[in-house]
Design a protein that fits this description.
single chain; 306 residues; alpha+beta; Nucleotidyltransferase, domain 5; 2 domains; 5-stranded antiparallel beta sheet; globular
């Protein structure tokens, strides 16, 4: 496929990690560590970014009008949040996440490889024992074996497929995916399509719908902690909001906080020290006004009596 046109002011992102989910206690991308990220844009083509480049990478992404990826909202941005806590705040509103849009339309997920096969008639390519084709597990093994060129090629091809699927959907208004019925009989495979609308107006409207409620309207249950300065701590994973009640200054909320940071805070031997070293000054911090606190407590009391 020739280089797609009409993608000015657009950057495509894909990344690979150093660790697997099962090695970090489950689906916690913030703990997986960046191995390499690959971006593509019309002016610069493909570029590689490594762990030391994460600050520059996020700033570069923020300069574009649109960021395109495959599962970036649920995975890539959370990996980058370890290095740049405000990545979601900077990029979510301008992001087209192909997988998120397909899941919203169909109610189930389609792999990048299957979507590329059905939409573009292409899959990952490679030859011999060092074929580019592989899995996320294989990419991690390559990285640990020092085969970094293979990981870069693997990530680059994912970025290329993501770019071309996006360009196809932008031009045709649909993308395709394979369908098996029944799934145990691949011979009955067919191809189905899902409509996509990635116009600027549609993307803005969809992002507003995805944006969670303002965290100050969320009633977060806090747990008491033993600390010289902190009375209790709570966390809302849906909005990534951390709520902390201090002994002397009331209740504050911190936005775009990775769940791993909350877990580390709760496990710290002295939460106040962890807060000062890892949270203070790094996350947006509005104070939760006493009237809101009192109203929330009143509602909880009424519910308990009902």
């Amino acid at each position: 496929m020739n280089r797609p046109s009409g993608l000015s002011d657009t950057v495509v992102l894909d990344l690979e990690t150093k660790r697997l989910a099962r090695e970090v206690g489950g689906w916690v991308p913030e703990r997986m560590g960046l191995a390499v990220a690959v971006t593509w844009d019309e002016e610069n083509g493909f570029r590689e970014w490594f762990e030391k480049d994460t600050e520059a990478l996020v700033l570069e992404l923020s300069d574009f009008k649109r960021v395109v990826g495959f599962n970036v909202l649920r995975f890539d941005y959370r990996v980058l949040a370890t290095y740049h806590p405000n990545v979601s705040q900077l990029l979510t509103a301008k992001t087209v996440d192909i997988l998120a849009d397909v899941y919203e339309a169909l109610g189930f997920r389609i792999s990048l490889d299957n979507m590329a096969r059905a939409t573009l008639g292409r899959v990952k390519t490679g030859t011999g024992d060092q074929a580019v084709t592989g899995t996320g597990d294989q990419a991690v093994r390559w990285w640990r074996q020092g085969k970094r060129d293979l990981v870069i090629d693997y990530c680059r091809e994912d970025a290329e497929l993501t770019r071309d699927i996006y360009a196809y959907g932008l031009s045709h208004g649909v993308i395709y995916y394979p369908h098996y019925w029944p799934r145990l009989l691949p011979i009955l495979q067919s191809t189905r399509w899902v409509p996509v609308n990635w116009s600027e107006k549609s993307v803005r409207r969809r992002q507003r719908r995805r944006t969670p409620r303002h965290p100050l309207s969320i009633d977060i249950n806090r747990q008491p902690v033993e600390s010289s300065a902190i009375r209790s701590v709570g966390y809302d994973p849906a909005s990534q909001t951390l709520e902390i009640e201090f002994h002397s200054s009331g209740i504050y909320q911190f936005f775009d906080v990775p769940e791993a940071v909350y877990e580390d805070l709760m496990q710290a031997s002295e939460p106040a020290s962890y807060f000062n070293n890892h949270i203070r000054g790094r996350y947006h911090r509005p104070r939760k006004h006493n009237v809101l606190v009192a109203f929330a407590r009143l509602l909880r009391g009424l519910k308990s009596k009902a």
